[in-house]
């Protein structure tokens, strides 16, 4: 049985060296990046048997993405598209530094995934998985991607697969009103919701603190678990009527992109191993901290490393 299946777009992330501008750089580092494959990689690195479903052109850039994800132990389930009629999405990342913010520029319109149909994907993988995860980025990409998201969530629900959804609101893809309507249509198919407190307020129109937000969402939509993330203020989870809180583990931030996905990966990986909610929050938080210390979207870590963060170890390992 597969532990985890995720579904979503993976792009090529192109970033100039730190301190260089996109306008003038001669060098771009190429890495795979996409919220849902970031989660699959993070969980696979922590021992989960993880699959990731997507659609890509059967071309060198498409295969480049798959090769990188495979190298971390993720099993791809890709609908290969005609390379002459489709493209790989890309995103440019210019690292910031005070007072200049980090800048993400998408170049992903008409990427192969915008034409994805549920029949092209191995739905059986979702049925036999223990956990299915997707995010609010995918339904923003196209109507076909939104319909496929709903269809896979339904398939997972019918099969008794646990379904999680990370809101992941991206203001460069759609506006809050359209996003909120799409999310609320999907919520009936979701067991565990991950939501940043800021998005809960600004996109879902919720008021109050994290606990109040979690209670409100669970009552209205019937989630089994709601995890509200609060950046450096840590996370709060509501599960079976109980509230759990987790602080962040301190980290020197080298690259913050993918931190939320690393949190989700650590959380799911620990739940899949039978860990309780507090343990899952700890694993999520520690995996997120480790992600921040490395370059790229992916949480390239190990169970031992996560354990040592949780246990407060660090320093020089020799
Ligand atoms: O969570 C990290 C993602 O933002 C990054 O991987 C790119 O998938 C991406 C997106 O759509 O923003």
TrEMBL record:
Top EC class for this record: transferase
Keyword set, alphabetical order: Kinase, Transferase
Domain Carbohydrate kinase PfkB, residue spans: 1-297
GO MF terms, alphabetically ordered: 2-dehydro-3-deoxygluconokinase activity
Enzyme Commission code(s) on record: 2.7.1.45
Highest taxon in the source lineage: Archaea
Pfam assignment, any one: PfkB
InterPro entries listed in its UniProt record: Carb_kinase_PfkB-like, KDG_KDGal_kin_Halo, PfkB_dom, Ribokinase-like
Cited PANTHER family: 2-DEHYDRO-3-DEOXYGLUCONOKINASE_2-DEHYDRO-3-DEOXYGALACTONOKINASE, SUGAR KINASE
Protein family per UniProt: Belongs to the carbohydrate kinase PfkB family.
Annotated protein name in UniProt: 2-dehydro-3-deoxygluconokinase
Organism: Halorubrum trapanicum
